[in-house]
Specification:
With 391 residues, the chain is an alpha+beta fold. Helix content is 37%, strand content 14%. The protein contains 14 helices and 15 strands. A four-stranded antiparallel beta sheet has the order 3-11-7-9. α7 packs across α10, α8 crosses α13 and α10 packs antiparallel against α12.
């Protein structure tokens, strides 16, 4: 039965409401779904799907290989995981990984039509031997599977998904922004660019504190919970296509650099002083019984950052009313439910407006769109392939 067929009253959490969406929320004033925006394309990527723990090693093992032959450094990289980002207070890679990128195994495996040429994987015998012993036997078992499995078996010396497009996009960057794809908190952190990112991470071509402030704001958090999916209702499954590519950024973020850096640096100081990762820090942040000065200051800075982001949208009339509020994720220090609905309405309306402008410019016309690409052609990886609907 459709909502419009119901003639009775609506109640949500024992409170009368004007309707209920399929997401068990109160309907917004703006109807429709969010559109992916061209302005956000090629800026967010999923990390590399290694498929084989034989690629992974300790820092000491990697250093020994480099000392044995300095050339091995070409294919050995620090390997940042979601656990490193969320649970370790220094947020540094705890392991290294062998990465042959898209190197052919040898000249015979090179594409005769479009040969890549050297380097080949066989040029690094120490590292290749490790993969022959620890990865190839497992990959060989995939030879009888589907086309994806057969491809991974055939390219046993490479990651299952090397995400070459990601590393092409950040090749000239010193740092990038990262987020764990599955997490109870919508938190972001910078990482150095010259490493390998685990599949559990989303990586953004963002290196400014101003943009960090926008995605770290409660405005983007609420949008992400609305557009993304959840695991068990309490863990956000952050999809780059659903949560980021649809998000309408403020036209100008220049006024956000100072507060973004201030918020980030204070959070880093808390983590280093208490030797606690992002997850533990935000557990304290959302605990009303936590009254420590450093956490209270983090809350104050978050309020200041949210208000600055709202001002960047010219939403000076918006009353966010921060405090401890009941949410579907439990009791959280966040904006009020009324403010949440208003934020989502305004963001969705802005998304529609931006989409119509891009559409009028021909940016969503498939034939015209192909001819307009000027940069290196890289495609953003899909998170879960599902676009959430707004009702």
């Amino acid at each position: 039965m459709r909502q419009g067929d119901w003639l009775g009253k609506f109640y949500l959490d024992d409170k009368p409401v004007n309707g209920i969406t399929s997401f068990l929320t109160v309907p917004g004033k703006i109807i429709g779904k969010p559109h992916k925006l061209v302005a956000n394309q090629n800026k967010s990527f999923r990390g590399s799907d290694v498929l084989g723990m034989g690629f992974v090693m300790s820092p000491e093992e990697a250093q020994a290989l480099i000392e044995k032959d300095a050339k091995n450094k070409d294919v050995l990289f620090p390997y940042l995981s979601g656990e490193d980002l969320n649970s370790h207070y220094k947020q540094l890679p705890s392991r290294w990984v062998i990465n042959f990128k898209d190197y052919p195994l040898n000249a015979e495996y090179d594409d005769p039509k479009k040969p890549k040429g050297k380097p080949y994987a066989v040029d690094y015998p120490d590292c290749l031997k490790i993969l022959e012993e620890k990865v190839k036997p497992q990959r060989d078992k995939l030879a009888s599977g589907d086309s994806t499995a057969r491809d991974a078996s055939k390219r046993w010396w490479q990651f299952k998904r090397p995400t070459i497009n990601l590393y092409q996009a950040i090749i000239n960057m010193e740092k990038v922004l990262c987020k764990t794809r599955h997490s109870p908190n919508c938190t972001f952190e910078f990482a150095v660019a010259g490493i390998v990112f685990q599949e559990s991470l989303t990586v953004f071509t963002i290196n400014q504190f101003s943009e960090f402030a926008v995605v770290s704001s409660t405005l983007h958090e609420k949008w992400s919970w609305k557009c993304g999916s959840t695991l068990g209702g309490h863990r956000l499954r952050y999809s780059p296509t659903d949560c980021f590519e649809t998000f309408p950024f403020p036209e100008s973020t220049t006024n956000l650099e100072t507060i973004g850096e201030k918020y980030h640096n204070h959070r880093q100081n808390i983590m280093l002083a208490r030797q606690s990762g992002l997850t533990k820090t935000y557990n304290r942040f959302h605990n009303p019984e936590e009254t420590a000065t450093d956490i209270q200051q983090l809350r104050d800075l978050h309020v200041e950052m949210d208000n600055a982001v709202a001002t960047a949208y010219s939403w000076t009339d918006l009353e966010l009313k921060h405090g401890f509020h009941d949410t579907k994720q439990g009791l959280r220090f966040t904006i009020s439910e009324t403010a949440r609905r208003e934020v989502l309405d305004r963001l969705l309306q802005l998304n529609h407006e931006r989409y119509e402008v891009e559409k009028a410019q021909g940016l969503h016309d498939k034939k015209k769109g192909k001819g307009k690409k000027k940069k290196v052609e890289v495609k953003s990886d899909d998170g879960n392939g599902q676009l959430s609907l707004f009702e």
